[in-house]
Design goal:
This protein is of the alpha/beta class and 407 residues long. The protein contains twelve helices and 18 strands. The strands form four sheets. Strands 3-6-2-1-9-11-12-10 form an eight-stranded mixed sheet, sandwiched between helices. The protein starts with a strand and ends in a 7-residue tail after the last helix. The protein binds adenosine-5'-diphosphate, aspartic acid and magnesium ion (MG).
């Protein structure tokens, strides 16, 4: 079955007027394409932030089942309103929650993965000629409780639905015209990309470019779905995320990111014996802490220091676990540096071009900025630096690598 899957983000649905504008877009596409249509929605504007703030006024460590039950309501409101607005334009529509849409997740509250989608109800509604509006960001677990899938997760809901329904493309409508070489709100000369590979987009998303949820890119890659990121506010074509890119040869690197709320955790005086890294990181994985850059110092007097970066959002639930594992290993002090930003560059072109790392480090040196931690993969280089230097370094990297106004 040919099918159109679209997703609209929070800014695009921030007011009743914007919801009506989205409804108009949906109805236009439905009439023009003459295909069954599924529309995935985020919560209106800052609703999810407001709900999280509300829960923090009740408890700093809320019960996660109830936390999910609360924050999933944002999408329920926008789905019902959008469905009403589509009806008002004379097209039949039905809103479904993640549970009604058959989106089964893991049993982990607040950051579950989608494990399966039972599309029978969706198919029934589509066969009856309804536009189906589905709440993003949520599904249900083994005991039928509502579970959310991580901040920004509506993108993943949309791509997973596209995969389950056999749609070749998933359109993600947002508040910028596509994917840029860096966040266009931080660098005004950022260039819009015509296309980008899954692997590059995965790195950019994981490193902090919040335009796409990382798992949405993973899911698109696994299922060969093209993601078209475009603006809700203009008719222009946006950026295509796909297997290969036509612009690769032209650009030295594809993009740069800045993540301003990082922390470096250092555990000192760890006995330098086989298996300690495994104990530390297995423990962190068990308590669902996402670790990024990792460095281990040279051994001194039979002990070593292991440092790693985590996002500051993770600290509240990670800190006790980190201290516990340090105690378990008879290690010394645990230090947490919160004055950390992470600047990264990404590009498949890096594999064949020597000198990219040297050029990046030169930029830090020319600003007199100290690098706290470095990590690399074949297609990315990340450096942790002091937070106050993040924006100027990002802007200079963007200019020096020729990403401004790239054609
Ligand atoms: P939505 O609510 O539509 O999901 P998000 O706020 O999650 O929107 O994502 C869109 C935002 O992502 C943009 O407003 C932009 O500031 C930010 N962003 C960060 N990096 C990039 C990038 N490389 N290209 C485009 N947007 C980016
Ligand atoms: N509303 C959720 C959030 O703000 C999900 C999303 O927008 O994708 O994180
Ligand atoms: Mg988003």
């Amino acid at each position: 079955m040919k099918i159109l899957v679209q997703k609209y983000g929070g800014t695009s649905l921030a007011s009743p007027q914007r919801i009506q504008a989205v409804a108009k877009r949906v109805v236009d596409a439905f009439s023009k394409e003459r295909m069954p249509m599924v529309v995935v929605v985020s919560a209106m504007g800052d609703t999810t932030d407001d709900l999280i703030q509300l829960s923090s006024q009740i408890s700093s460590t809320p019960n996660l089942r109830e936390y999910d039950a609360l924050i999933a309501t944002g999408e329920m409101v926008s789905a019902a309103l959008l469905s009403m607005a589509i009806h008002a334009l004379g097209v039949s529509a039905v809103s479904l929650t993640g549970t009604q849409a058959g989106i089964k997740t893991e049993n982990i509250h607040s950051k579950a993965k989608i494990v399966h989608i039972d599309i029978s109800r969706l198919r029934k509604e589509l066969d009856q000629g309804n536009v189906v509006v589905v709440t993003g960001f949520q599904g249900f677990n083994d005991v039928q409780d509502v579970v959310t899938i991580g901040r920004g997760g509506s993108d993943t809901s949309a791509v997973a639905l596209a995969a389950a329904l056999g749609a070749p493309v998933c359109e993600i409508y947002t508040d910028v015209e596509g994917i840029y070489t860096t966040d266009p709100r931080l660098v005004k000369d950022a260039s819009k990309l015509r296309d980008i590979t899954y692997d590059e987009m995965l790195e950019l998303a994981a490193l902090g470019a919040k335009v796409l949820h990382p798992r949405s890119v993973e899911c698109a890659k696994e299922n060969g779905i093209i993601i078209h990121v475009r603006s809700s506010f203009s008719p222009n074509e946006g950026t295509f995320v796909k297997e290969t890119s036509t612009m690769e040869a032209k650009r030295p690197i594809t993009g740069a990111t800045l993540s301003e709320e990082e922390a470096i955790v250092s555990i000192s005086q760890i006995p330098d014996t086989p298996g300690v890294a495994s104990i530390i990181f297995s423990h962190l994985a068990q308590i669902l802490v996402n670790v990024d850059m990792i460095v281990q110092s040279a051994s001194e007097n039979g002990t070593t220091t292991i440092s790693f970066t985590i996002h500051q959002d993770e600290l509240p639930h990670a800190e006790a676990g980190i201290r516990e594992v340090a105690g378990l290993l008879n290690a010394g002090e645990v230090r947490i540096d919160r004055d950390v930003a992470k600047v990264s560059i990404v590009g498949v072109g890096m594999i064949s071009k020597p000198g990219i790392a040297a050029k990046m480090f030169d930029i830090f040196a020319s600003h007199g900025v100290n690098i706290k931690v470095i990590s690399t993969s074949e297609i990315k280089i990340s450096c942790a630096i002091s937070r106050r230097d993040g924006r100027k370094i990002l802007q200079d990297i963007h200019a020096q690598f020729g990403l401004d106004n790239l054609q």
